[in-house]
Design a protein that fits this description.
Length: 124
């Protein structure tokens, strides 16, 4: 699994003193949390629908930012990549990889917006 980007959630003064790590690979974003009880969330890149970047004053002072992601993933429809360094560049890398992954898998945004109900019928 080729890692494109990896970082930790940063806390006080921009130091990586957290047990939350973010890993971007060619086709997925992994969010690992916890120390004793570990949890890993996996989001396929082609499922990410929208990205936004927030940089509060306190984050800008330490060169941090938070990327908000909206996805078509059922278990994680919205999530934040919190307090990461070089957030503007990371958002651009993530956006580029999402587009590449959609093209590679031939997935259009219309396909991601359809919902299947329990009997398997799709609705727009």
């Amino acid at each position: 699994m080729e890692v494109i980007w990896k970082d930790r959630k940063r806390t006080l003064f921009g130091l990586p003193l957290s047990f939350t790590t973010y890993t971007l690979t060619k086709n997925k974003l992994l969010i690992d949390t916890g120390f004793l009880n570990k949890h890993q969330e996996e989001i396929m890149l082609y499922r990410i629908l929208d990205l936004s970047l927030e940089r509060k004053l306190s984050q800008r002072i330490f060169g941090l930012g938070t990327i908000h992601c909206c996805s078509s993933d059922k278990t994680t429809p919205e999530y934040d990549i919190v307090n990461i360094k070089d957030s503007e560049n990371v958002k651009e890398i993530l956006s580029r990889e999402i587009i590449r992954e959609r093209r590679e898998n031939r997935v259009g945004s219309r396909e991601l917006m359809t919902d299947a109900d329990d009997d398997g019928d799709y609705h727009n």
